Amino acid sequence: MSPSPLLLKAVRESRNDIAEEYAALCGELDFQKKFKLSVKQHPFLWLSGAAGAGLLTTLFGIKRSASSKTSPLPSSAVDSGTALSKIGWLAGALEIGKLLYPILRPVVMNFAQKSIQSTLAKRTRSQ
User: Fold this and answer.
1) CB neighbours of 47 closer than 8 A, spacing ≥ 6?
2) Tens-digit pLDDT profile for residues 28-84
3) Considering 63, 64, 69, 102, which has the largest number of Cβ atoms within 10 A of its Cβ?
4) What DSSP string runs through 44-96?
5) Is the pTM of this model over 0.85?
6) Number of domains the chain contains
């Protein structure tokens, strides 16, 4: 006995539905792609959020109490700890810059191009 054409059609449709659902699920779970798209669509929002987070971290970060200032470690060890902390912040800033460079470069180039064109247009009108 051969399967009925209606049954084969139903199986094909079911497979297509499952393939579409799987593709939609894969697209929904691709967080790296969604993050990059969000940063490309709203670069200034992301930059202002990062600047705000940095400002809040700086203002409300961990403050040392008076008892922790009298450390049993030698002063050179305490100074190297703060130097390492600054190096860590610098390395983090460089990594964020590397991440945002491909996204921000077209925005900056477009802004520079428009400002140069407007400056040149003003000069040619004044001459």
Assistant:
1) 100, 104
2) 888 888 888 888 998 888 888 888 888 888 877 766 555 555 555 555 544 556 777
3) 102
4) HHHHHHHHHHHHHHHHHS----HHHHS-SS-HHHHHHHHHHHHHHHHHHHHHH
5) no
6) 2
Residue 80 one-letter amino acid? S
Query: Could you tell me if residue 59 is inside a domain?
Result: no
Query: Tokens 């200032």 belong to which residue?
Result: 69
Closest listed residue to residue 64, CA positions, set 78, 84, 50, 83: 78
Residue indicated by tokens 């659902």: 21
Q: Establish if 1 belongs to a structural domain.
A: yes
Measure CA of the first residue to CA of the last residue in the chain; give whole Å. 91
Contacts of 38 (CB under 8 A, 6+ apart): 46
Angle at 57 between CA 99 and CA 34, to 5 degrees: 35
Output DSSP code: residue 30: -
71 CB-near residues (< 8 Å, 6+ apart):
77, 78
